[in-house]
Specification:
about 120 residues; mainly beta; 7-stranded mixed β-sheet; 4-stranded antiparallel β-sheet
């Protein structure tokens, strides 16, 4: 009933930029938190950035000053602008949303994940 669809990954040279987008669709009542996580080969999935409905943001120390997260509460989208990319940013990036939706009978709250999009930073 709810889907998160990501776009914008790809291959970029060190120092370059990429923009990731994620759109949530379905019988959504409200979205509390939207964010981006990433998982590099052989490593655990980690938080990159998240944004709460009121606009407060949190960033991993490794991306502060380089990445910017934003959201559109009307369109239910979240965007991650990634600048000054480094090889260590290479990972699969996952969109995440903590949201309330209507299941046909009542409101329910759950956490959803996108399918992931590959970001590769290499020369």
């Amino acid at each position: 009933q709810v889907q998160l669809v990501e776009s914008g990954g790809g291959l970029v040279q060190p120092g370059g930029s990429l923009r990731l987008s994620c759109a949530a669709s379905g019988s959504i009542f409200s979205i509390n938190v939207m964010g981006w996580y990433r998982q590099a080969p052989g490593k655990q999935r980690e938080l990159v950035a998240r944004i709460i409905s009121g606009g407060s943001t949190n960033y991993a120390d490794s991306v502060k000053g380089r990445f910017t997260i934003s959201r559109d509460n009307v369109k239910n989208t979240v965007t991650l602008q990634m600048n000054s990319l480094k090889p260590e940013d290479t990972a699969v990036y996952y969109c995440n949303a903590d949201l309330t939706y209507y299941n046909g009978r009542y409101l329910n709250t759950d956490v959803y994940w996108g399918q992931g999009t590959q970001v590769t930073v290499s020369s």
